[in-house]
Amino acid sequence: MRSYVQILTTPTADSPGTTLVLHFDNKRYLIGSLAEGTQRACVQMGARLLKVSECFITGRTEWRNTGGLIGMILTLADAASSSAAASADDAKKRAQAKGKRLGVSHDKEKMKALEEEAKKDVANRKLTLFSGPNLNHTLATARRFVFRKGMPVDVHEIDESLGRREGEDEWAPYWADENIKVWAMSIAPSSGPSASESSATKSAGTISPRKRSIDEVYEREPVPDGGSTVTASSITPKQRDLLTVKAVVSEMFNSSWRLDTLYETPLSEVKLPASIFVRNAETNKIERYSGPLPGGKHPVPDPNMTVLVRKPWPGALVESLPPAQPAKEAISYIVRNHTQRGKFQPEHAKALKVEKGFKWAHLSAGNSVENEDGETITPDMVLGESKEGGGFAILDVPDETYIDALLARPEWREPKVMAGVGAIVWACGPGVATNDRVRAFIQEHSGVEHIVSSPDYCPNNISLDSAAAATVRLRQVDPWRYVVPDHQNAVSQPAPALPHNARKAERGQMIQLEPGFEVHSKQAIPPLDMAATEAETSSEILEEAKKSQDAAQQMDEPTQKWVESLPPDAEKVQITTLGTGSALPSKYRNVSSTLMRVPGWGSMLFDAGENTLGQLKRAFPAEELKAILKELRLIFISHMHADHHLGTVSVIRAWYEEVHNRQPLPAGSLGKENYNVNSNLAVVSEPAMSSWLNEYAAVEDYGFSRVAPLYVSPANTNKGTPSKLGWFTPPTELASLPNADARMEMLAAKAVQPSMLNLTDVQAVAVQHCHGARAASFTFPSGFKASYSGDCRPSKPFTIIGKGSTVCIHEATFDDELQGDAEAKNHSTTSEALGVAQAMGAKACVLTHFSQRYQKLPVLEHGTSNEAEESSAAKALTAEDVPMSTGSEEDESTNPEDDLACPLEDVAETLPDQHTVSGSARQVDLPSKSTKGGAKNSLDETFGGNGNARDAVGGPRKSGAPAPEAVRFKLTSDMKVCVAFDYMRVRVGEIGQLEKFTPALLKLFAEEEKPEVDGEAALEEGKGGKKGKEKGGKGKGKKQGK
Fold it and tell me: Alpha carbon of 234 to those of 146, 321, 933: distances in Å?
């Protein structure tokens, strides 16, 4: 069976770690770092990961190695769900066909039995993760915002302090399946003890690597449906804590919880916020309750009225996790194919009187049979010489303190482990690959090919070729707003030449394991050729771009007056759109993040989706990025969807390293009394985000001790109640107080003023997207005001708090013809976003968060409302034209704790429902939204499947789709508008000039939307992503099908 390893990533700004994919026809295995950006790198390389069911994570359990894992699990789970649904449909069709053949189609009982039998053949997807300590804890911290069903996730934390079972082979692999055997090595640094205090771990360089799985060690029985866990009475408190977090992780990904299971409860006992349903007495259908709510300004009609509510999923009910400590162990693996049986020799079988037929097949498969004389014939009697399976090792060495323990491992001298191993991949931190001890080890093992993936030898090449090529071409149109992404095609400091049996790692490089062993770079991806990319742009586009550039340098009188009307220095405020895509990883757009640099104040991030730090490193040269980190003052997280916040930890860590050299404060010592706007960083969000940051800080010191975790309560514009800022207090701390008065006293003491952040005002409103979603407005001392929508349907309260904004940054996920999709998925269309910005009187609007590679460009006409009504060539936009949520849903409670964003509500963000209800449960048909549009949420480009993912929408336009076009809008104000692309850097005062580039951009987009060359999945065929060629860069991977 053919098998090979391919390098997907080497250390770059886009992909911080080294990731490999091990390919068999029936399965894939991800091995190495699962850092932020891994998904996009897989898409870029054309790697189909739908067949991945095991991931072997190397190195330490830190965000730089695991930051892409949560997003990847979500996407894999959604792909698996879609695949399972399709398989279930196929199974039902097979059962129906069989019933028809048997003549039992009309027998309901027999048909039900046939369908159940067919469903048994549908394999349930399971994802198994191998890592060092703390990965269960890492995943469990995400329980408030991660929930999937039907894909069990089993995490095996490799702990060498656990002994072997009596009689077990000393060199048995840690794990094996039908394809491979894996030996795990847990390496502790020599400079100090690891997180595990056992003597076995401290002497990791001299012990056997094989340890039992978690289930074996803890003698654990399967987790029953009720969620209880049975464990051996002899386990230690540490082991019991691990079982606790494993149970939480199990509920996050394989719970029996159902969205349509509702519980009866008296209306007076409903805790807000909540989704409340009632049964219509006339139709007997379930409907949403729309009457007065408990604690509202209008009395409820009947406090004892029976309503239906749902419980949150069980994982979200866990208020706190067991304690954890940072773990220093770095995990490496040795992976081998199984021994290949020798060729069957028919003449030997005949001589031994074995009848030809099934017995020969049994012998070929490795089974013994009896011959004509009743004698037992074993396979070795008829098979040729067996062959050791090919193998490789991946060694993750974070720094030089791990070298001694790694090189002292006994595996290197044990043939039972090393037989067949032909290559070693070194995933090294700086300085490791150039270390004399490592170089001597490489030379000593001269019969093995060594591949070095290290910043000492691997330059900071562009990894996301498609995105970079698109930016290069945009720069040809608008050289002031776009720069070539920062990269280096050579290492900054030349390193000593590698030994003769070693080579540097390259994307696409392959280690062929079977049928014959070979290491080659035939499919290695060359660095993106910027000059060649620019040369692809037609002269027609360049001529149109020159016209646009000339026009942009001439500011007309209306635009000049518009600039002069801005607050002082507002025209100098720089907005950099780091990520402008929707939830699914894309070659062309990263997930949400926008950087705003305000002269004299500092920098602010609006959302920080996965790999925001990588985008910052590409958008700004190193020295400029240092300045940005030093001036970073605030991160605002709009809601708890993963594509808006999973990059936060990395950004905080980079800030922490730059500003504080990773020197922590004593836990809990930072407060509003000693907060320094120049040396501390505020994260403003809903409490669930602060809870996550607080809990994850137990896994590693990423700088949380110097961060101000602030929650912002939603303003109630109907009541005239403004937002309030407060220092986050963990729910368990509040819950421990004796009564509501004590809790309110603590909350009042934790209240902070916007002036602490050197701001005049901070306002936020709840918006229609998911529980806890906020749109916010920030007012600066200069009078500059920025409003940010996050993800939402159009919101009237947002227009109220945003009144007089200088700039409104608003999502425009869907084109206008997909209005139905926008309503169903709680997003906005282009005209809706423009309508909101205009209604608040914004001077400028930046549109972002697009579901497609190229959104339709708005062409704006300005005039009075009467002129707008008379216009037929352009779509008129007035405040009345855009239906908006009124904010009446906020009028829920007079409880002050609810006004403070319900800090005691420790529930999952999308389903703000009841902790405890005493009524009976029943499954019901819930009222649903209809989708008038036709956009699909495709996973094809990502993992070779199809289906819905997270908050995912759309994808690149298919070949043959209409080319992008302009859509005309008539505004009744002088508002200026721009459409954002990744890496766009625009000053507020320049936004009015960007409309002049529309003709050139339309030509560029039309050319890039020409059908691409069809081709098989590059990685599937071992082509390393080179087959086919796409506009905007030389074919670095094709879009994948099923």
Answer: 32, 21, 59
CA–CA separation, 716 vs 894, rounded Å? 11
CB 327, CB 196: distance < 8 Å: yes
Three-state secondary-structure class, residue 974:
coil
Residues linked to residue 885 through DSSP beta bridges, in sequence order: 795
Whether residues 635 and 654 share a domain: the answer is yes
Domain that holds residue 294: 262-312
CATH number at residue 119: 3.60.15.10
Give strand pairing partners of 777. 763, 787
Two structure tokens written together for 359: 């017995």
Number of domains in the chain: 4
Task: Tell me the pLDDT tens digit for each residue of 496-534.
Answer: 999 999 999 999 999 999 988 999 999 999 999 999 999
The burial of 492, by beta-carbon neighbours within 10 Å (0-12 exposed, 13-18 middle, 19 or more buried), is given as: exposed
User: What pLDDT does residue 937 have?
Assistant: 37
Beta sheet of 761-766, edge-to-edge order: 761-766, 774-779, 785-788, 807-811, 844-848, 976-979
Helix, strand, coil abundance in the chain, percent, nearest 5: 30, 20, 50
Q: What is the pLDDT of residue 888?
A: 56
Closest C-alpha to 209, from 155, 167, 177, 172: 172
Which residue pairs, CB below 8 angstroms and at least 24 apart, start in 95-101?
none
Whether 692 and 592 share a structural domain: yes
Query: What is the C-alpha to C-alpha distance for residues 646 and 649, in angstroms, rounded to an integer?
Result: 7
Distance CA 942, CA 49 (A): 8
Residue 810 CB contacts under 8 Å (≥ 6 apart), including other chains: 788, 789, 828, 833, 834, 836, 837, 845, 846, 847, 848
Domain assignment present for residue 242? The answer is: no
* Sites in the chain below the pLDDT cut of 50: 192-232, 868-872, 889-913, 929-960, 1012-1042
CA atoms of 836 and 795, how far apart (whole Å)? 7
- Strands of the 277-279 sheet, one edge to the other: 286-288, 277-279, 306-309, 261-266, 921-923
- pTM assigned to the model: 0.85
Structure tokens at 620: 């700004």
Residue 401's alpha-carbon distances to 33, 190, 663, in angstroms, are 19, 5, 20
What's the pLDDT tens digit per position in 61-101?
999 999 999 988 888 887 777 766 666 777 788 888 888 88
- Are 453 and 602 members of one domain? no
Angle at 583 between CA 822 and CA 852, to 5 degrees: 65
Establish if 206 belongs to a structural domain: no
Joined tokens for residue 282: 């006339």
Q: What is the dihedral of CA 695, 698, 700, 702, to 10 degrees?
A: 50
Assess whether 408 and 291 both reside in one domain.
no
CA atoms within 13 A on the CB side of 644: 29
Residue 1022 backbone zone (phi > 0: left; psi -120 to 50: alpha; other: beta): left
Same domain, 725 and 578: yes
Q: Please give the Cα distance from 679 to 665 (Å, whole number).
A: 12
Q: Are residues 353 and 334 in the same domain?
A: no
CA distance 50 to 43: 12
Q: Are residues 14 and 136 in the same domain?
A: yes
The SS3 assignment for 495 reads coil
HSE of 729, CA atoms in CB hemisphere, 13 A: 26
In the chain, count H helices and then E strands. Answer: 31, 40
> Are residue 560 and residue 666 in the same domain, yes or no?
yes
Please give the C-alpha separations between residue 307 and each of 42, 272, 291, 508, in angstroms, as whole numbers.
47, 13, 11, 58
**C-alpha to C-alpha distances, 776 to 185, 193, 842, 910, nearest whole angstrom:** 48, 46, 14, 19
Taking the C-alpha atoms of residue 155 and residue 126, their distance in angstroms, rounded to an integer, is 11
225 belongs to a structural domain = no
Does the residue 199 lie in any domain? no
pLDDT of 792 reads 94
